[in-house]
Amino acid sequence: MTEEKIEVTAYSGYRGEETPREFILHGRNVEEIEVLSRWIEEGTGHQAVKRYFKVKGRDGAIHKIHYDEDKKEWFCEVAAVR
Predict the structure, then answer these.
(1) Which of 34, 44, 76, 77 could form a disulfide with 64 if both were Cys (CB 3.0 to 4.6 A apart)?
(2) In this structure, are residues 20 and 33 in contact, taking their beta carbons and an 8 Å threshold?
(3) 5 CB neighbour count, 10 Å cutoff
(4) How is the chain classified by DSSP, letter by letter?
(5) What's the whole-model pTM score?
(6) How far apart are CA 22 and CA 7, in angstroms?
């Protein structure tokens, strides 16, 4: 798996946490219809805190995306093409 930088439209809740609502992957807009799970990986040493979301998109696919707190950018895990 590789990580691809994506653009995300997110909703900030009352606690200031952002939850993805839609994102652009491979030039197409993917609307999120359900957050299936979410978790945080705490950074250690030189690693940043990452907030992960497993979402079901309106495209019918399950996507694993995360926000890198250090880089302040969103990424999607993409299966490597052989």
Answers:
(1) 77
(2) no
(3) 10
(4) -EEEEEEEEEEE-TTS-EEEEEEEETTEEEEEEEEEEEEEE---TTPPPEEEEEEEETTS-EEEEEEETTTTEEEEEEPPP-
(5) 0.82
(6) 9
Please report where in the chains the tokens 């705490």 appear, as a residue.
42
Is the pLDDT at 82 greater than 60, yes or no?
A: no
Domain map of the chain by residue range?
2-78
Separation of alpha carbons 55 and 32, rounded Å: 6
8 Å CB contact between 75 and 4: yes
CB count, 10 Å around CB of 59? 14
At 35-73, the pLDDT tens digits run 999 999 987 777 788 999 999 999 889 999 999 988 889
Instruction: Find out whether 14 and 4 touch, Cβ atoms under 8 Å.
Output: no
pLDDT of 46 reads 77
